Amino acid sequence: MSKISELSDGGVIQGGDTLIAVRSGGNVKVTYGGSTTANIDGGTIDGTVIGGTTPAAGSFTTGSFTGDVSFGDNDKAIFGAGSDLQIYHDGSNSFISDVGTGNLGIRAENLFLQNADGSENYATATLNGAFTLSYDNSQKLATTATGIDVTGTAVTDGITSDGLVTVRVDSAGATAEALKVYNTGIGNNSQVRVYFGDNDYNTTGRGLRIDAGRDSGADGIATFYAVDQAEHSDYEAIKILTDGGVTLSHLGNNKLATTSSGIDVTGVVKAAGTVLSTSAAVVNSTSAGGFGFASNNTAFYSFGADASTAGSYTFQNLSNDASINITAMKIDASGNVGIGNATINTFYDTAVNVYGSSNSVIQFQSSLTGTASGDGFAVGVLNGVATDAYVWNRESSNLLFGTGGGEKMRIDASGKLLVGKSTAGFASNGVELDDSLNANGWVLFATSDHSDGDGGTVALNRKSFDGNFIEFYRDTSTVVGSIGTYFGDLTIGTGNCGLIFNSGTEIIIPANITTNAVSDAAVDLGYSAGRFKDLYLSGGAYLGGTGSANKLDDYEEGTFTASLRGSIAEPATLVTTTGYYTKIGRDVTYNISFENVNTTGYSGDVSISGLPFNNGFGRHMATVGVYSLATWTEQIVGSVDQASAVIVIRDIRSGTSWASAQHNAGGTRYLWVAGTYMTTA
From CA 260, how far away is CA 266, in angstroms rounded? Predict the structure, then answer.
């Protein structure tokens, strides 16, 4: 086979389905199976072996292509010594990546960023012209020689401008300024000026101008101007002053100003068609000046400085011809008020005097009460009775009294007086004076739910002198009982049958309530047909005298466990029974009964342990009965030694000294013991 370099133009090397042909001009074409697999149309490949089994790497110093160059997915066209610029497709997206050093520059006289088929522009840039951004191929933002031009609505989180801000809107096919903001730049009085509507240079513009900052007079910090170039130029309407005041103007002329004490008005004030003038409206010889009020052309009312009393003001009612002068109200220099009478009685420092020929009443009514003479709430003197006065709720509802912004007392619609409560009855806390609990008179009661340490429900106090807090009467003049105080102690009772509660010595003393003298041995506690049930005492009772020998300090009844004992032998479980005792003072009486018991296991001396108290004095003897339980029972007794609670069963034999009875163990045994002994306390 010949080498490619040995082939002349038109030469062919063929083996099987492979053909290598050298075309005219030295170009080489490689085919396989009839398809062109490599077509080198021109250029030079340096250091690259053609036809080797393994492709060899090489470098192109130059290269030109008249057809396409294809790269597979993730195969990159790489530029730069450090693979700085890469162009590739990863199977899903295409990328131009500048991953090396330096900047990525795209250079063109006119630059267009478009969709895939070039039918829509995203962004365009023209030489010496605008850069534009589009939405759906519709231009929305373009740069200009002075800034930007926005088509449509701009939404921002804020705007910062170093110069004039102007907003224009389309109006009847033309563009008109809607808002302009700029700095006046006038020395120390430099302001931010805002125009709403046509600008201030338009000779026909109308709108609103706001200047924020000190004005030329240095007394305003914000001024609102009405802009009406065709009529009046810019004129001040509202100004906020440096001292906190506000002025209102008409065509730039100040008419109302707020001050620290109120308002100042320049000119005439009009209200609901009635004109009030600062010039005096003299209505008769007694008026030094005032204001006039017209009412349906039927009467004239005026008030002014009273010429007869310096510093006073009168309200007068005149007929149409001013021939009748009736004083409706007068306020004197001290602030006293007279209604219905020109004369003011100044018994008090400040007074309101209401005068009427027979009834002098102040009546309060509303849309809820109605306006009839019997409606509402009235205070005054009724029916010409000069000594009587009344406060009257004419409605079928409550009359309330309060202080400090809250209700303190009321008289409800049924006539109950409630203090500290608004609902009658025991369920609510407070004081109630009520005549409806029974048909015979008033009842006063109070309810509270405070703790014991918060004071009582009802508090009564006598100052300086002892005596009764409460007296109870039968009919009109007979006192049947009382509650009072005597030298700081509580007394309760009637006549010679009473009690003094002495807290100092902690005693309750029977006494004559009228004289507060002690009633010694004169007052019974109960009687034969009226006895008290139980008496609970923690100490003693003196019976028949007041000495210590008369004191009964203890009484009790109870039971105890009596155990049968043997001096030689006892069963593992002792035989026991329940004993009964009564203790009066120091005397203890007891009864013990062992009935039909089995004493197997017992031997030796017979005794019983378990008395409720120790014997206090000498040897105590007890009565004993026995059946089969003990041997040699000719004359048997029980004895308790001093300071002991054990009964020893003894047998007194004829002609000999006594000896301890001995157990006769077995079943069906009986032993009875009863006695009385004294304790030490």
Answer: 17
Task: Give the torsion through C-alpha atoms of 112, 116, 122, 126, to 10 deg.
Answer: 10
The reply to whether 259 and 306 lie within a common domain is no
**In degrees rounded to 5, what are phi and psi of residue 638?**
-115, 145
Residues 668, 605 share a domain: yes
- Give every CB contact of residue 315 below 8 A, 6+ residues apart in sequence: 301, 302, 303, 327, 328, 329, 330
The C-alpha atoms of residue 85 and residue 103 are separated, in whole angstroms, by: 10
Q: What is the pLDDT of residues 362-393, one digit of tens each?
A: 778 888 888 887 888 777 776 655 567 778 78
Q: Which residues pair with 247 in a beta bridge?
A: 239, 257
- What is the tens place of the pLDDT at every residue in 96-118? 888 888 888 888 888 888 888 88
5 Cβ neighbours under 8 A, 6+ residues apart: none
Over the chain, what is the mean pLDDT? 76
Residue pair 74/91 in contact by the 8 Å Cβ criterion: yes
Measured between alpha carbons, how far is 213 from 218 in angstroms, rounded to an integer? 9
Any bridge partners for residue 485, and if so which? Answer: 467, 490
> Is residue 623 assigned to a domain?
yes
Last residue of a domain, one of 533, 564, 594: 533
SS (H, E, C) 163-174: CCEEEEEEECCE
CA dihedral 562, 564, 570, 574 (to 10 degrees): -40
Q: Does this model's pTM top 0.90? A: no
Residues 236 and 276 reside in one and the same domain = no
Rounded to whole angstroms, the Cα distance separating 45 from 62 reads: 9
pLDDT at 44: 45
Question: Does a structural domain hold residue 109?
Answer: no
Full residue range of the structural domain in which residue 224 is found: 165-264
3-class DSSP state for residue 403? strand
Q: Is residue 131 part of a domain?
A: no
Q: pLDDT tens digits for 449-482?
A: 766 655 666 777 888 888 888 888 887 778 889 9
Distance CA 643, CA 614 (A): 5
Question: Number of C-alpha atoms within 13 angstroms, CB side, residue 446?
Answer: 12
227 and 303 both lie in a single domain: no
| Domain total in the chain | 4
Q: With respect to residue 8, please indicate whether it lies within any of the assigned structural domains.
A: no
Tens digits of per-residue pLDDT, 300-344?
Answer: 444 555 555 556 666 666 555 545 556 667 777 666 667 665 566
Residues in Cβ contact with 376 at an 8 Å cutoff, skipping those fewer than 6 apart:
363, 364, 365, 366, 369, 370, 394, 395
Kindly report the backbone phi and psi dihedral angles of residue 336, in degrees, each rounded to the nearest multiple of 5, phi listed first.
Answer: -75, 145
In CATH, what number is assigned to the domain containing residue 614? 2.60.90
